[in-house]
Specification:
four-stranded mixed β-sheet; single chain; alpha+beta; 130 residues
Length: 130
């Protein structure tokens, strides 16, 4: 992966199991190639968290990269984006047990001064939901 890239989702059930083993929600970033807000969120917040061990994967809009969804079906990243009804990049999703969303989505660009605190609040809410 490029130095400014998060790992691409390959198997959501496996990625979720690894996250839950750390008592952490799985954070999925839905990104779009060339999106400046996606790049900023990744560089400033998500990559440092991932390097610190936070379970994070990326799903790319319009990408034919393969993954496995929470039902065990082989899908493309673009199909996941459609399943989740996402139209804005970046969008962060927070998944807990059984692949349920356990916190409100973070959609689009936030003011940089507040992005980190909104993100931390979502993680705390997600962790307290199971």
């Amino acid at each position: 992966a490029a130095p400014d890239a998060l790992p691409a989702s390959r198997s959501l059930p496996q990625e979720l199991a690894a996250a839950l083993a750390k008592d952490h929600p799985l954070i999925v970033m839905v990104s779009l190639a060339g999106c400046p807000y996606c790049h900023a969120a990744r560089r400033s917040y998500l990559l440092p968290m991932w390097r610190d061990g936070v379970p994070l994967v990326q799903v790319d809009m319009r990408s034919q990269t393969g993954s496995v969804d929470f039902n065990g079906q082989r899908v493309t990243h673009d199909q996941l984006v459609q399943q989740w009804r996402i139209s804005i990049a970046p969008t962060l999703l927070f998944f807990g047990p059984q692949g349920r969303e356990v916190a409100d989505r973070m959609e689009g660009a936030y003011l940089p001064d507040f992005y980190g605190s909104y993100l931390e609040a979502r993680i705390q809410k997600a962790r307290s939901s199971w």
